[in-house]
Specification:
- The chain is built from ten helices and five strands.
- The chain is of the alpha/beta class.
- Strands 2-1-3-4-5 form a five-stranded parallel beta sheet, with helices on both faces.
- The longest helix has 14 residues, at 170-183.
């Protein structure tokens, strides 16, 4: 497994270097102290399994700038935020911008490992403090692109048609659909659409 850690605090990176081998024996850990260096690592290593990103980097216009750049560079790479910022608004904003999970720096080792396992399995992870209303959280954590995909799914479009309309690969659409189904705790596309309409998350296009 190959994990990239992007954090400008050397001490925290050293802590992860000591901790993460206990999560996975065959681990290759890459480090970057800035967003620019992290992007360079991402381009140089196309086989990354996961990126761990701190929101406190000081080389962007806002806390989410590096996340957006990473997501544009690789739309499918699992990205987990590891941050000391614990506000619900910050967590939701990060997930909406494409993070696959948000891990608090105050989390225990077991909590962190559980989060990493779930993210690597394709789930979206948010701290337990936001998990009381699973439907609301699931709706909030869909990215803007996933919302676009969900609306097209609701209109009955196939993955191929959605890919053509959005100018992306069919495989990327398939990944988005899978993430949407998991985020809404649905068993298939149809149930995901039904839940999204019930929550008021997308419009009911049946009468269009």
């Amino acid at each position: 497994m190959k994990i990239l850690v992007i954090d400008d605090h050397a001490l925290f990176r050293e802590g992860l270097k000591a901790l993460l081998p206990r999560f996975c024996d065959a681990l290759q850990l890459l480090e970057a102290a800035s967003c620019e260096l992290g992007l360079a690592q991402l381009v140089a290593h196309g086989d990354l399994d996961l990126a761990l990103l701190d929101l406190g980097l000081r080389d962007g216009n806002d806390r989410l700038c590096c996340l957006r750049r990473l997501r544009r560079t690789d739309p499918t790479l699992p990205i987990a935020i590891i941050s000391a910022h614990e506000s619900a608004a910050t967590v939701r904003s990060a997930l909406q911008e494409g993070a696959n999970g948000y891990i608090l720096k105050s989390a225990s080792k077991d909590e962190m490992f559980d989060a990493l396992r779930r993210i690597l399995a394709g789930d979206v992870y948010c701290p337990p403090t936001l998990s009381n209303d699973s439907d609301k959280v699931a709706g909030d954590i869909l990215t803007n692109r996933q919302r676009e995909v969900l609306e097209l799914v609701a209109r009955g479009e196939s993955n191929k048609a959605i890919a053509r309309r959005l100018g992306t690969a069919e495989g990327t659409v398939r990944i988005h659909v899978t993430a949407i189904i998991k985020a809404l705790d649905a068993v298939n596309r149809t149930e995901a659409v039904i839940k999204a309409i019930r929550l008021g998350y997308i419009a009911d296009f049946a009468d269009d």
